[in-house]
Amino acid sequence: MINGAHVIIYSRDAAADRAFLRDVLGLPDVDAGHGWLIFKLPPAELAAHPTEGAPRHEFYLMCDDIHATLDDLAERGVQVDVPVRDQGWGLLAAIRLPSGGELPIYQPRHPLAKDL
Fold it and tell me: How far is Cα of residue 18 from the mean position of the Cα atoms in its chain?
């Protein structure tokens, strides 16, 4: 039976992004060997959205209060790349990873499957 999910962020500077995930976001980790860190994520959800384009995957962090979360992250030196936008289904923003990648974060307004 399926007992979890493994998410991968491809990065131009994986070491910097791993340090960010560990030290700034405070995600617990295990070392799979030679400094290859794998992080524990909070509870997660999975959705399948229709597309007219090529199939793709996305990864979003979720929070209860996006403004408080972004303020806290900014105090830790995290750059907010995309300011908060109201999408109807939630409040969406994005933060900058040390590698230059963007990591979306949102405060959902929809029912939460992660709490089932």
Answer: 13
Gap between the Cα atoms of 109 and 91, Å rounded: 8
Q: Which residues pair with 95 in a beta bridge?
A: 80, 103
Nearest to 82 by CA among 55, 101, 110, 58: 101
The predicted model scores a pTM of 0.87
Q: Are 94 and 81 in contact (CB under 8 A)?
A: yes
- Which of 71, 69, 79 has its CA nearest to residue 101? 79
> Could you say which DSSP state residue 20 is in?
I
- Which among 88, 89, 84 is positioned nearest to 105, based on CA atoms? 84
- pLDDT for 8 equals 92
Confirm if 109 and 90 have CB atoms less than 8 A apart: yes
DSSP letters, 50-70, are --SS-------EE-S-HHHHH
What are the 10-residue block averages of pLDDT along the chain, 116 residues in total? 88 95 96 93 92 92 96 96 96 96 95 87
